[in-house]
Amino acid sequence: MRASEQDGTYPRPILQRERWHSLDGVWDFGYDDGDVGERDAWFAEDGAGAFDREITVPYPPEAPASGIGERAPHRVVWYRRRVAHEVLAAGVGERTLVHFGAVDHRAKVWLDGRLVAEHVGGQTPFTADVTGALRPGADEHVLVVRAEDDPADLAQPRGKQDWQDRPHAVWYDRTTGIWQTVWTETVPAQRVTDLAWLPDPARGVLAEVTLASPPTAPLAVEIVLSRDGEVLAESTTAVRTPRSRIDLVVPALRNGIDREDLLWSPERPTLIDARVTVRDAGTSAVLDTVDSYVGLRSAGVGRGAFLLNDRPYYVRSVLNQGYRPDTLIANSGTAELRREVELIKAMGFNAVRIHQKAEDPRFLYWADRLGLLVWGETGAAYEFGTEAVELLTREWLDLVRRDRSHPSLVTWVPINESWGASDIPHDPAQRHYSIALANLTRALDPTRPVLSNEGWEHTDSDILGVHDYSGDPAELTARYGDAAAVDAVLAGPGPQGRVLAVTAHQVERYAAGDAPLMITEFGGLSVRADNDDFSYTRTSSDTQYAELLGGLFGALRSSAVVTGFCYTQFMDTAQETNGLLFTDGTPKLPLGTIRRIVTGEDGDAGETAAGETGAAGEKGAEEAPAL
After folding, report:
1. What is the distance between the alpha carbons of residues 381 and 580, in angstroms, rounded to a whole number?
2. Is the C-alpha dihedral spanning 569, 574, 576, 578 positive or negative?
3. Which residue from 320, 317, 310 is spatially nearest to 340, judged by alpha carbons?
4. Residues contacting 17, CB < 8 A, separation 6+
5. Among residues 299, 227, 224, which one has the least CA distance to residue 261?
6. DSSP state of 70
């Protein structure tokens, strides 16, 4: 299926097959506050008494959309779903898989009373092969999930989920259990289990193909890259091991003019369709076929700038918490994710920083297709120690592996504001942790910039990201107006009272132009907020809000040193009223006004696709809402 033909509903955009089925919808549900479920065999077919209510998956029980909306802490929860046999049935030589997009935090899965999967990591996908557990002759099967999420465990990566009973400051409601889609897939026994694309705009792309098992006989892996039906490159490779790296040369890239037409960027998000076919080398019989796509682009730093396709590119980003009023950390589906991407672009931003969570891969699909740079992040732990390091590192590696083929994702952020490593300047172990995470990320993916710590206390970052919530445009100009001003900030305690660079190596990288300066959190303005709301700077009228917003953006754009920024934030979230939108998605100013403030240029918000899907509503695009 061509990338341009996909509707964004497939839960795993980079590796698609025809035969799949969503299990989202109404499940049986129960709390297990006494943690007796395993002892009493709630996973058994007759464990009916344990499930005393219903929940709508994939919304967590804390979310109103789940049908429960219970926000008090419950450490252990259980789910049950009866699934028709025809949904799970596999033919000869086939396997039936049940995929979980994300279950927070520890999960066990049973089918027909048999344990089929265990997983740790609240943001990462996992799969249960249920083929061997299917009861012969059954008309339906019983799928049961136990999820454990300790709300008080500070070693557990949790991001913006509050460890206190009630949300406070910039932390929100917790998430327990299933919060991304659950789906089944019928697959060949020998198949592609992982697919990654490493683009090189000068010559082509390197494909990494992983098979389900070592081949017992030689296989042939065919890859075809095409655009609008025209074949750009094709390759057939004899494979005798489960992992292969296949180099595809795209001849059209040799012509500099043709190359420009094929490169991916926010302004021109060209996607190349890819099809991978696995055959028996002896008989040519097809064993597996998957569809995917590639974005040919490079992302890096140098010459004092962020480089996209080896050219300086000014980053205009907005912070997106990814929490929604009705679904909390989850989302209502692909249409909502598309609207968010469209609205961010309509505001004049060319990038988004997904903050303290790993967003649904379908958001990345729409960023790929519509053209929006993404900074990839993960939820932080809030203490340092062996358990925290192990949990976050394992989860982070899985996220890098999951998302590394998306062309929109251009920067990795494993640590934010020293959360989970609060003593980096004084504790060698925490400095080593910061440096090790950055280098481990580079080892898995050498094609993107990595920040060792976002906001301050950098040890080895490819971008010197600074958080500065000054509400005074003149103060921003004084700090970042020229190189001498930035040098003074680097030598001091930093705008938030935290030193910006804790290693000489980091200072040297900035001075050499190898770690460009970006103000990666700023703003945080609210308008007419209540006393219990949180914001960094309050304004009392629409006029004051617009003037101050314009002043802050203008101060950063006028800097000769700043190479990009990230405004806090996209939308009001719970009690945090720093958004450019209210919680219902209504813009606080007309979209055209926001766009002019963000870009510094005159323009028409109507030129975006917002009208196509009603991103902010017709009124929001035309005039300021009545407040």
Report:
1. 28
2. positive
3. 320
4. 185, 187, 289, 290, 291
5. 227
6. -
Please report the sign of the dihedral spanned by the C-alpha atoms of residue 411, residue 414, residue 418, residue 419: positive
Residue 59, Cα to own-chain centre: how many angstroms? 18
Q: What is the pLDDT of residues 174-219, one digit of tens each?
A: 999 999 999 999 999 999 999 999 999 999 999 999 999 999 999 9
User: Strands 53-57, 177-178: parallel, antiparallel or unpaired by DSSP?
Assistant: unpaired
**Quick one: angle between helices 428-444 and 386-403, nearest 10?**
20
Tokens of 168: 């406070």
The answer to whether residues 403 and 440 touch, using CB atoms and an 8 Å cutoff, is no
- The length of the chain is 627
CA pair distance 406, 301, nearest whole angstrom: 19
Pairing mode, if any, of strands 103-104 and 192-200? unpaired
Phi, psi angles (nearest 5°) of residue 23:
-105, 10
Measure the CA–CA gap between 56 and 70, rounded to whole angstroms: 13
Distances (CA, A) of 370 to 2, 49, 259: 15, 48, 20
Rounded to an integer, what distance in angstroms lies between the CA atom of residue 324 and that of residue 581?
A: 12
pLDDT in tens, 574-623: 999 999 999 999 999 999 999 999 999 985 544 443 333 323 333 333 33
- Residue 603 to residue 564: CA distance in whole angstroms: 20
The amino acid occupying position 574 is A
Output the CA torsion sign for 45, 49, 55, 58: negative
The three-class DSSP label of residue 56 is strand
Which of 491, 495, 619 is CA-nearest to residue 555? Answer: 495
Where b means 16+ CB within 10 Å and e means fewer, 11-22 reads bbbbbbbeebee
Cβ atoms of 550 and 597 closer than 8 Å: yes
156 to each of 106, 122, 172, how far by Cα in Å? 10, 9, 16
Nearby residues of 273 by Cβ (< 8 Å), 6 or more positions away:
2, 3, 4, 225, 226, 227, 291, 292, 293
